Amino acid sequence: MRIDFECTGGFANLRLKLNVHTDELPQELADEIKALVKASGYFEIHPGDAAPAAHGPPDVFHYRISLSEGSRKQALSCNDVSAPNSLLPLLAKFRELAIDRRRQGKDPKNR
Q1: What distances in angstroms separate CA 86 from CA 32, 37, 106, one per listed residue?
Q2: Residue of 69, 104, 106, 65 whose CA lies nearest to 82
Q3: pLDDT in tens, the chain (111 residues)
Q4: How far apart are CA 84 and CA 6, in angstroms?
Q5: Which residue from 40, 44, 20, 17 is spatially nearest to 30, judged by alpha carbons?
Q6: Which of 46, 91, 29, 44 is nearest to 65 (CA)?
Q7: Range of the domain at 96
Q8: Partners of 14 in beta bridges
Q9: Position 9 in a domain
């Protein structure tokens, strides 16, 4: 599964990116991500159902997620307020992974 993830905003105005294929990850982590994608119903979420409102509270995180697996492809934009609850664990995992990869210097695009 191809993952293209971007997280911006928050109090510290973070800018995180994650561009990776699950084949490049340890098997346990890849399996965890695939399970989170399935549990979230990611590919069944209508993009308009997650779209952030034009105005929202300050200091929320904004997300852009694009996942593709075989013939299934979906891109969503949302924020902490507009994201469906089922998507929150997946967003947290992607944010955690992006931070870890930045710390390890594994993602030069993440600067």
Answers
A1: 15, 9, 29
A2: 65
A3: 999 999 998 888 889 999 999 999 999 999 999 999 999 999 999 888 777 766 667 788 999 999 999 999 999 999 988 899 999 999 999 999 999 988 888 665 544
A4: 17
A5: 20
A6: 91
A7: 2-103
A8: 9
A9: yes
Q: Is residue 78 one of the residues assigned to a domain?
A: yes
DSSP codes joined into one string, the chain: -EEEEEEEETTTTEEEEEEEEGGGS-HHHHHHHHHHHHHHTGGGS-HHHHPPPSS--TT-EEEEEEEEETTEEEEEEEETTTS-GGGHHHHHHHHHHHHHHHHTT--TT--
Residue 12 falls inside a structural domain: yes
The count of domains in the chain is 1
pTM: 0.86
> What does the radius of gyration of the chain's CA atoms come to, in whole angstroms?
14
Q: Is residue 110 part of a domain?
A: no
